[in-house]
Every structure is written in C-alpha cells, then in structure tokens.
C-alpha cells in the first residue's frame, strides 16, 4: 500500500531545469564548445560536480581540480542570478491542485533533490512547508542515479521503499527511484523516460487517484 509520494524539484515542481541548462551552456560556450538540449537530458538530476565532469569530457577538456572548483562556482553564480527573480508564479501548472489531492488522500510527502540550492528554491516559491522531509544535495553523498536521495527520504518519513511513489523528470532520477525499489512516475516524454512505471507529460495531466490505481 502506498503511503508516501517523493518529489524531485527541478523540472517537477518548478522549471529550474531550463536555468541549469542555460548556465551550463554559457559555461561550455566560454570554454569554446556547445551543449545540445539532447546532451542536457543526461545532465538532469546529476550533481553539480558530476555534471561538470560530463560537460568537460564532452568538450574534450581535462582540467585541474582547482580550475574545476572555480568553474562549478561560476556556473552556480549564473544559476543563482537566473533564479533570483523566481516566485510562487513559477510553480509548474498542476502542482497546487495535485498537492491538495495528496493532502486529502493523507499521503506523506518528501522532496528528493540532489541540488544544494533546493531549500533556497523552496523558500522562493513558498513551498517549504509542503514537504514533511526535505533531502537535498547537502544531505547525500551520492547523486542520482544512486537511490540514496530517495531511500533517505523514505527513511525520514518512516516508510518502506515499496510504500513510495517517486515523481521524476530526469533519466537519472527515474533510474534512482527504480534502483531504490519504488514505483516511478516519469514526467516528460515516454521515449526519454522509458524506464518509468508510468509516464505523463506533467503533474497537470495526473490525479492522485490515477497514480494510486496504476500502482495497485
Ligand atoms: C538537480 C538538477 O536537481 O540538481 C541538476 O536536475 C543539477 O541539473 C543538480 O546539476 C545539482 O544542483 P545544484 O543546484 O546543487 O548545482
Ligand atoms: Mg529534475
């Protein structure tokens, strides 16, 4: 029986995925190459340091750890600049309705994001109180596709993985949920998120009842 819903943040609750992409693209451009939207799919849900390693490998660059720390900080500064004007208006369509259904159904909720900026974003959009547990990039040692971020969320809520549903827009995030032993709802394209148990374009096109029926 399902007792908890675990939500990714970037690309599920709020469209910060585009800002991560813009900031990484700017960094790649300054280094003399470009990253496509398709390449960016593989960066979604991946930690800041792992993303930088993938980008540098893509551009055929090998840099010192010192330089990499500097570039990661630069990307984050640009990202923070892009998200600084965000407000509750940026919450994705369907999220508010879906969360009121979640409360009605008496389900527990946790955030499972590898972003170290997750608490800041939640404050900006006024959704900190929507989650009983918040697992972010500062609380984990391994990013997605490792299941740690979700297994920690389940543990903090006091539920087992089999009692959880994960909502994810990233290939790495879907894999993390599956490896954690959870039912995974992929939000995006069925081609990209083929590993998910159920795929929908966004939370707007789902109801809690549809999800619970699909799990049973
Ligand atoms: C994930 C994003 O939520 O967080 C990734 O999908 C991002 O694109 C990762 O790299 C880490 O985020 P941050 O904010 O700690 O750099
Ligand atoms: Mg995401």
Automatic annotation (TrEMBL):
Active site residues according to the UniProt entry: 8, 10
Site residues, Important for catalytic activity and assists the phosphoryl transfer reaction to Asp8 by balancing charge and orienting the reacting groups: 113, 144
Binding-site positions, substrate: 8-10, 24, 43-48, 51, 75, 113-117, 144
UniProt-recorded Gene Ontology molecular function terms: beta-phosphoglucomutase activity; magnesium ion binding
Keyword Lyase: no
This protein's UniProt keywords: Carbohydrate metabolism, Isomerase, Magnesium, Metal-binding, Phosphoprotein
EC id: 5.4.2.6
Catalysed reaction, written as an equation: beta-D-glucose 1-phosphate = beta-D-glucose 6-phosphate
Positions of Mg(2+) binding: 8, 10, 168-169
One biological process term in Gene Ontology: carbohydrate metabolic process
Cofactor(s) required, per the database record: Mg(2+)
Listed InterPro entries: B-phosphoglucomutase_hydrolase, Beta-PGM, Beta-PGM-like, HAD-like_sf, HAD-SF_hydro_IA, HAD_sf, PGP-like_dom2
Domain of life: Bacteria
Cofactor mode of binding and number, as noted: Binds 2 magnesium ions per subunit.
Pfam families for this protein: Hydrolase
Family: Belongs to the HAD-like hydrolase superfamily. CbbY/CbbZ/Gph/YieH family.
Protein name per UniProt: Beta-phosphoglucomutase
Classification of source organism: Bacteria, Pseudomonadati, Bacteroidota, Cytophagia, Cytophagales
């Amino acid at each position: 029986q399902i007792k908890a819903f675990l939500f990714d943040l970037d690309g599920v609750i709020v469209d910060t995925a585009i800002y991560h992409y813009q900031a990484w693209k700017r960094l790649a451009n300054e280094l003399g190459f470009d990253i496509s939207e398709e390449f960016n799919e593989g960066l979604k849900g991946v930690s800041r340091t792992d993303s930088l390693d993938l980008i540098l490998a893509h551009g055929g660059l090998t840099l010192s750890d010192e330089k990499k720390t500097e570039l990661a900080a630069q990307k984050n500064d640009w990202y923070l600049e892009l998200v600084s004007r965000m407000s509750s208006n940026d919450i994705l369509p369907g999220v508010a309705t879906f969360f009121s259904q979640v409360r009605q159904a008496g389900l527990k909720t946790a955030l499972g994001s590898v972003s170290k900026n997750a608490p800041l974003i939640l404050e900006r959009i006024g959704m900190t109180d929507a989650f009983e547990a918040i697992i972010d990039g500062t609380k984990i040692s391994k990013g997605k596709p490792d299941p740690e971020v979700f297994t920690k969320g389940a543990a903090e809520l006091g539920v087992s993985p089999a009692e959880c549903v994960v909502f994810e827009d990233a290939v790495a995030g879907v894999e993390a949920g599956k490896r954690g032993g959870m039912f995974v709802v992929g939000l995006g394209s069925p081609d990209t998120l083929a590993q998910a148990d159920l795929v929908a374009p966004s939370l707007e096109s789902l109801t809690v009842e549809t999800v619970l029926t699909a799990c049973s």
